[in-house]
Design brief:
single chain, alpha+beta, Immunoglobulin-like, 2 domains, 5-stranded mixed beta sheet, 4-stranded antiparallel beta sheet, 18% helix, elongated
């Protein structure tokens, strides 16, 4: 023997397995870094929250203004509609541009931007905000508004 080794089929399995595990760890790390630095785009979604606080919420007491923000739709034209879940009908909300009551708002969201819709003047009830692109439902979030003052429930488990 002159100090050389032959790679057998059994040894080759271990080498391939080690390479696969190493590359998957490297890819996962790269994905996390990209997401944390904003290089990766999160999946498109709609978040219900209190105006001025972007923590997700599904309930708003009297005096809290509900809002929804569309994330991941930059570069697209979207339509927001607000439904009263008790009646199943669309309900009006202030148009973000004109301030007049409307049941749907269509706008183009600039690339790499988000769109926030402030939903003032809602009566107590249960609502569903629905976001469409090309008449296809893309995202929604449901929430309720109560008549009495109370602390809204944070969906992320945090405190006020």
């Amino acid at each position: 023997m002159n100090g050389t080794r032959t790679i057998t089929a059994r040894n080759m399995h271990w080498i391939v397995l080690a390479a696969l595990v190493g590359s998957s760890i490297a890819c996962a790390s790269a994905s996390m870094v990209a997401y944390k630095t904003g290089l990766a785009t999160p999946p498109p979604h709609l978040v219900c929250h209190r105006h001025g606080d972007h923590a997700p919420r599904d309930h708003f007491g009297h005096g809290n203004v509900a809002a929804v923000t569309a994330y991941g739709f930059g570069g697209q034209t979207v339509t927001l509609e607000l439904y009263d879940l008790n009646t199943g009908l669309t309900t009006s909300f202030p148009d973000p541009v004109t301030g007049r009551a409307t049941t749907r708002h269509t706008a183009h969201i600039a690339k790499h931007k988000v769109a926030e819709y402030v939903l003032t003047g809602l009566k107590p009830g249960r609502y569903s905000a629905r976001l469409f692109t090309a008449d296809t439902l893309q995202a929604s979030c449901d929430f309720s508004v109560s008549a009495k003052p109370e602390v809204p429930t944070r969906l992320d488990g945090g405190d006020e």
